[in-house]
Structures
1.
Amino acid sequence: MPAATVIGSGVIGLSSALILQRAGYRVQILTRELPLQTTSVAAGAAWSGSELEGQSRSWAAVTLQHFFKLAAEPASGVTLQRMREVYAHSVADPWYRDLLPFFERISAQDLQPGLVDGYVMDVPMVAPPLYLAYLRDQFLAGGGTLEQRDVSSLAALQAEASLLINCSGVGARELARDPRVYPMRGQTMLIDAPNITLGYMNHERVDHIFPRSDGVLIGGIKRDDDWNRQLDADDSADIIARTSKIEPGIAQARALRQFVGLRPGRDQVRLEAEQLSESCRVIHNYGHGSVGYTLSWGCAEDVLALAKTTEE
Ligand SMILES: Cc1cc2nc3c(=O)[nH]c(=O)nc-3n(C[C@H](O)[C@H](O)[C@H](O)COP(=O)(O)OP(=O)(O)OC[C@H]3O[C@@H](n4cnc5c(N)ncnc54)[C@H](O)[C@@H]3O)c2cc1C
């Protein structure tokens, strides 16, 4: 049985580990933070294809099919959610329009002042605290092992593993010595607002209202090169102020939980194999920025394809 060691247990590490395990690999995960402590738990997390180009579109399309299947399993924390996506300028129909079960353009009179265009669509919505636990449990039930360990360098693992999968998110800046990786700080708040059933995304303003299976997630913040992982009260107030203008009920809603995460920024995802030594290869899978959930299964499938070439 071939073996693989995955570094990291965010959405990218867990998806990669599961795909390898299902293909017959004996997989262990080594991770500094456990799944529910990662950046991934702070995410929205909507399947969001609008800002994608090139290869990322294929990864997102593959992920979409996985999410459609997961949405049929209530325990996964994935649901199909009706969302508005709005713009202050005109936009063409997106590349993924025909992949969704429901898509319609919003007419001009239904848009708030200052907005010019937008659509309503059904997209997969992930509740990360439920979903990450679900992936972790599937992985453990499949015989995988998960060890909390800080990996000081990839070279430090050469003696104990022949195939490494580097899913270290923003940690790849150090672990892969990659200066192209930088943090994009995010902050979100989960609120109790069962009356809000229609979601909202304005990417330009980072205004997000995501009804999920565990509450309504409001956001957000996107601040490049900010490593602060503490909650910022001004950011919380700003999130409530901005989203209340869209859904006035938000100002009165009870806050359930707040999150901070560092999106792994990079000019492009790094998904490639590197020979570390004669007996050890690493497949890098990091740098997913604001769309790690959207790309997760497509990237994991490419990790498996690369792992198989590595075997030969
Ligand atoms: C506020 C916010 C909203 C978002 N909304 C969305 C959305 O709506 N849709 C979407 O698709 N994406 C969204 N994202 C982006 C998405 O969350 C990220 O792209 C994704 O979580 C990155 O996952 P990852 O597994 O690469 O990184 P992480 O979740 O950061 O996991 C990295 C893992 O590597 C481990 N690690 C790092 N260094 C080491 C080391 N040296 N040794 C051992 N372990 C190490 C960490 O401990 C951790 O377990 C959002 C992100 C944020 C912050």
2.
Amino acid sequence: MTKICFGCGAQLQSDDQNAKGYIPKNKIDDASYCMRCFRMMHYGEQKVMDTPKDAKEIIRKVNKDNKFVIFLCDYLNINTYVMDLFKSIKNNKVLVINKGELLPDNITYNMVRNFVQDKYSIYSDIKVKGGTANHGVKSIYKYLMDNNIHEAYLLGISNSGKSTFINDMATILGSKINKINVNSHANTTLDFMRVKLNNQLTLIDSPGFIIPNSLNNDVTNKDIKMLSYNLKDNEVIQLLNNKYHIKIENGTPITFYTSLNDNNLIKKYYKEIKLSNELNIDDNQDLIILGIGIIRFKNKTKITTNIPTESIEIRDSIFGGYYE
Ligand SMILES: Nc1nc2c(ncn2[C@@H]2O[C@H](COP(=O)(O)OP(=O)(O)OP(=O)(O)O)[C@@H](O)[C@H]2O)c(=O)[nH]1
Ligand SMILES: [Mg+2]
């Protein structure tokens, strides 16, 4: 009989310690979790399984199956690549913008919804949900029931909160399921996992997608921080241990929305740092850095950076006319 790990969805096995789903032979009969999930959940250990699933392959599989899709995306990861993935899903679907509780106070859920609809031409339903169980998951349960949906896939990029969503749904429904493994590192869920929550709803968790040109896939900080800077002439923003730099012309004030856990984002600028990518930012435009966050500028300006063009998107500001 094959058994599935409730933490990550991998098939339990005792043959290969380095492969997913491993559990020693003497424990396999009683185990609900593989060793990796057990250790992650109980001892905070990290074991990154670097086998990111190809997003297109997952979507191809889901497209063959006619089930409803709930697609999760946190607001820092709204970008062309992710929205195109969402659009490539043929099934009935809803886009859920997650971690809405971390949006700046002056940005309403409606503003975000309208923005995504207009900028990315999304014609399916869009929901924005906040973090806690009652604040969002409940309304999505109602949405599913109102639309007579009793089984749905949860798809989305890694760390968007798919497994947390199922655990939260189990809490509000009082379902006695084994909790799914959730973690701030990428690639926690490794296989599809069908979770029956009650007689009305079954959700299918899935391995998260990795954005190809993303500079960082882990949520190093649970919170999305809002950092404001007036850079001096000899200062740059530095990212990922000095690997990338951004110089902003004329010290234009910026606000940086990021989940990076780095308190050292400002650095003295040395001429030997070669910043060859020159970009113009128009009034009311944001700079999206894939996997890092969003930079909001007070005025139109010019930046120079060594971040590759493929990892950048410049678009109208998601924060509307508001500047903090
Ligand atoms: N602030 C906030 N954090 C959240 C929310 N939902 C999930 N998280 C956090 O986001 C991180 C990733 O959550 P997971 O549920 O493991 O994400 P996932 O989409 O299942 O990730 P993979 O299994 O890797 O595809 C964890 O640190 C969660 O605590 C939310 O609504 N708000
Ligand atoms: Mg997961």
3.
Amino acid sequence: MPDRLVLFDIDCTLIDAHGAGGRAILRAIKDVYGVEGELGDYSFHGRTDPGIIADLAALWGADGRGDVDECITRYVDLLRREIDGGEVETLPGIRELVTALAADRRALVGLLTGNIEEGARLKLEPTGLYSLFKVGAYGSDSALRADLPAVAVARAETLTGRRYAGKDVVVIGDTPADVECGASLGVTAVAVATGRHSVDELAAHAPDHLFADFSGWRAAYDAIIG
Ligand SMILES: [Mg+2]
């Protein structure tokens, strides 16, 4: 039985969808809440889809109009069109790293992402890697990223009968929110600077391991499984 639960963030960790998710979510908010506006300092990175929808609807003065579930349904339709018409880039070393971990009996590989589950599937199917992720915790489980590690741990226990705890849970992501979301569970945090946050910025949040990218994926593999 695997003794390590390895959980990957999606956007800017596994893939770059070239803004497909952001475009779909802004359009869905406009269609369902009837509002739009400037993002200002607001960043999507490290947040969840329902959290982003609620934040921006409030920021732009939706005043109780619209509905998060309806907006998510619209978002899924729009995202499907974006993904069909666009390009999902698998980030350097990811194909090798995820494939090697999925083939390693010591690792149970999964997702920990602010994407809703259907959005995660749409974004990852073009990479051919989607079937390698055996468990997941999603933005559709909670709008708060800090809730998601416990959801993933519970699903992994249902799947394997094993209770993954502490450093045996590995959370991999590109934002300070990814580094910090598992802190209360004492997980191993692996940060990768393939998103908006630099190596220096991520280092300030003291992840257990930090990489500029996964092009030298064996070092990450050793850090995750070692
Ligand atoms: Mg990310």
